[in-house]
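Lab notes, practical 5.
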Amino acid sequence: MNHPHGYQGGYIFKWDPAKERLTNLGLGLKYDSIKDIALDRVGGLIYGVSYPQVHFLLWDPGNNIFRDLGRVGSDHVPRCIFSDRWGNGYYVDWRQRLVKYERDSGQLLFSRDSIPAFPGTPAGRIITGVPTYAKDSENGVIYLITYGNMVCAFRPQRRGIGSVEALGATYDMETLPPRGYSPNSGFANNGKLYYFIGGHGQYVVSDTTLLMEFDPLTREKQIVLRFPVDVVSEVTGCDVKDDRGNLYFAGRRRSLQAENMGESGASRPFMIIFNPTREIAP
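Output from the prediction step:
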C-alpha cells in the first residue's frame, strides 16, 4: 500500500496446472487489493471483496465482464466470501447481514435480519462479520462461525436469502459472549463440524489452542486435541476437504527465533491435515 508510485490494485489470475499456464483476468477495484474470492461452480463466475473499501466484486471470465457491485461495509473488511450449490455469492455487511448476489436475477439481495449474535456482543465484533464457513453439501447447509463465536446453520435457497439458525457458542462458558477466535472450520464425512479456537491473544484456555468437535444434530461439543502455542498458535482455512475426507488448515506457531528477526517474522507457518474417521499415512 505504501509503494512510492502508488498501489495499482489487485488482479485476478487463472492458473491451469495441466498446461502450466497463468492467465491475467484483469484488475479489480483500482487502488484496492482483493481480500477473498469465491467461485460459482455452476456458471463460472468469480466473486471477490476489495480491501480496504469493501466493494462486492464480480468477474465473468467467459464473457470478459467485470462488475463493481458497490460498497457493502464500513471500516472493517470481513474475511470470507462464499457461494452455494446454485452458484450464488454471499458476503456480510457492516451489521452482519447477509448480502447475496443472485445469479438468476443478476441483483444484490440484502437480508432483513443480522446473523444471530449473543447479547452484549461488542459492535467491533459484529462489524468483523463471519471469518469462516464449511459446507454440508449432502444436506444443503452452510455452517458459519461469527467473530462473536456463534455457530450458525445457514440454509440457502436458489431465490431469496434463506434461513439462518443459531446453534450456540463455539465453546461453552458462563459469561457471554464467549471468548475465542476461530477463523477456520471444516465439515467432516462423519457429519460433524471441526474448528480450532485460539489466536490474536484470544484463547479460552491460557496459551493453548483447542481443536473442537461440534455435532450439529445434538449441538454437543467436545475438545478433541490441545496444543501449546509454541506448537499451534493460530489456524486459518475454510471448507478445504479432499475426496478421502481429509480436512486441510493453515497453521502457525510462535517462534522465539522468528520474534528475534522482527515483527514480520514472529511465527512459523505449516499445513495441518486432519481426518476424524481414519488414520492419515505420513
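Observations recorded by the TA: The radius of gyration is 19 Å. The longest helix spans residues 123-126.
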